Here is the input.
Amino acid sequence: MKQKNKGLRFFVLTSLLPAFLLPVIYSSRAAAAELVRGPYVEAVSAGMAVVRFRTDASTVAWLTYGAYPDCERFMTLSPQVREHKIALFGLLGDTTHCYRIYLPDSASTGSYKAAENAFKTFRGADKPYFNFLAFGDSGTGSEEQLELAGQMEKFTPDFVVHTGDILEEGLDAEADDQYFVPYRNMLAKYPFFLALGNHDYGRQYRKTGGKKFLRENYIPFHTMPYTGSPPYYYFFDSGNARFFVLDTNYFHGARWAQPLDKSSRQYKWLEHYLARTNAAWKFVVLHEPLYSTGAHDLSVEERAVLAPLFEKYKVDLVFQGHDHDYERTRPVKDELVNEREGLIYITLGGGGSPLYFQRNKADWSEKFMPVYHFAYIEVKDVNLKMTVYDKDGQVIDTLEMQK
Here is the structure.
């Protein structure tokens, strides 16, 4: 229900703005505007966040925010657009910030509060503890996807990691039903860090016609950290960990994906930051798996390029998608179990899309389950615990690691 704050509220909002903006604001009030997507927070770090939302008509909007409970400590203006993207800088780390979105009220001389929520900024390396949810291959709008979303809402993570394929065909027209609505309660509070999947490139991802697809259906609606070449690849830090999010679709024929051979910018970027990070924990998030016994064929080239790099710089866990199942490997290197030098690969591809069955068995595959699932990972300094749940909230696997 709209919460209207007439007269005084509108006076306060407009009196804080430059005079040259007032004609724009008053003219925009002639058309009613309501939220039709969001709000959702993205690119959260220790000192900043981005709040995004869509309105049904082009309009100005106001966003007030501050350290909870002072939700109107600061105010910023979004110009007259439908796709609103408001970056908040200079935030306090490890702090809950509340925010409110105000839209013009076409029926009076006031404005109304269209949404209100809160998010928490990240901790620095001096506070080495955090938790997050991880899942992938969710975009269908299926009953199973909604059941999983309901189970995930029971948690209060610092953030969420998605291993790709957030939409079935990658179209923004289906994004509300398959992404923004199922996770709207979480999206308004917890930033989602997304890896690109082949479906996110659209049906024409292997053809010339797919050149503009990502620019039209994905890039305008998502903000990822500017630490690489977002949204293709980037990293983010939380506590004493660094997460590397990669675009591996190049190995599987995506014509307009970022190259990832050894001469590519993405590979050189990855090696540069893997070599120089002082983070205690190093995680990689990607879509197409390096090790999996699921239905899809694996890319020999992808494994040959990336696995040695992960091993050299001692990546702790690799989170994968693409195969619609859950799988955890034993420490593996060169297709052999290697407890000393091998890495553990976790396939989290049962987020809502139709499930796959096991293509073949391998000695390095510790656990395989064709079930809908998500993972909850807790890091407390040198200790990590991963618990995997199915759509009924039952535990199907656990993993504990210690540095």
Q: What stands out?
A: The chain has two domains: 3-120, 129-402.
